[in-house]
Amino acid sequence: MAVSLAWGPWVQGMAAGSERMARAGMPPLRTEQGLALFDAALGGETANLVPVRLDLATIRRGGDVPPLLRGLIRVPVRRGQVTDGGHRLAQRLATATAAERREVLLELVLDQVAAVLGHAGRADIEPERQFQDLGFDSLTAVELRNRMNAVTGLRLPATLLFDHPTPAALVEYLHGDLAPDGAAELNGLLAALEPLEKALAAATVDAKTHQQIEGRIEVLRARWAGTRGEQRPHEEIDLDDVSDEEMFALLDEELSQQGD
In terms of pTM, does the model score above 0.90? Predict the structure, then answer.
C-alpha cells in the first residue's frame, strides 16, 4: 500500500520562519522525531498522514482554533464574552481623550506587529508603512489577526490586514469599533458612578447622615437633568435634607437659567 505523508516543518533546513511557526503552535520536528513518525507511518494502514509536531496549548491560547484541529482542541463556546485583554483595554480607553485612545491603540498594534515579526520592540515599526513591506504574508497576517482578537476582545475578519494595509489604518479601524464618538465619555461617566454605587450599597449610616446623602443625590439629579434642558419641579426635592451649601448651589443654578 502506498503511503502519502504531508510533512510538517523540520529543524534541518528550515531556519527561516521556524520561530514564527513555533509561535503559531507548530514547532519544527527534530530528526529523531521525524524518523520515529516515518517508521510509525510505514507500520500503519492509513494511506494519507500528516506527520507534524503540534503545541496544542499554544494553539488554544492563540484564539480561533483552525477547523482542522477542532477535534484535538476543545475550547469553550463564547457568546458575547469579552476576553480579559479586551476588558483591560476597554478600561484604559474609557477615561482617555481621543488623542490618548489613538496612542494607546497604536502602541498596542505596534507591539503585536513586533511580536509577530520577531522584533525586540515597536521602535522600528513605521505606522504608515504597508504591512506587506514590513514583511507580512498570508500566514503572519492571520497570526496578527488572532493576536488582535485576543487583546481587543473583538472578532476581527481574516482579511483585516488587507482591508487596513498599514498599522495607522488599523488603528483608525479599531478606534471606530472600540471607542466610537461619545462612547468613551459615556464609559467614563459610568465608570465613575460604579464605585459610588458600591459605596452606597455597602454603607451603614445613621438617619441624619442618610438624609444628608439623599439630599446631595437629589441635587446631583437636578443638575444632571439641567444638562439636558430639563427642569425638575423644586417640590420633588426634599429641602429639609439639603445642606445650606447645596441650597445656594440650586439657587445659583436657577438664577443662571433665568438669565439665559
Answer: no
Residue 179 to residue 116: CA distance in whole angstroms: 25
Determine whether 64 is exposed, middle or buried from the number of CB atoms within 10 Å of its CB (0-12, 13-18, 19+): middle
CB 102 within 8 A of CB 175: yes
User: Of 64, 89, 102, 80, which Cα lies nearest the Cα of 151?
Assistant: 89
**Is residue 183 very low, low, confident or very high in pLDDT (cuts 50, 70, 90)?**
low
C-alpha cell at 242: 439639603
What is the C-alpha R_g of the chain? 29
Contacts of 50 (CB under 8 A, 6+ apart): 5, 6, 7, 8
In whole angstroms, how far apart are CA 156 and each of 85, 108, 161, 240? 15, 15, 10, 55
Q: How far apart are the first and last CA of the chain?
A: 93
Q: List pLDDT tens digits, range 75-118.
A: 655 544 445 667 788 888 877 888 888 999 999 999 999 988 88
- Which residues lie across from 170 on neighbouring strands? none
What are the φ and ψ backbone dihedral angles of 96, each rounded to 5 degrees?
-100, 155
In residues, how long is the chain? 260
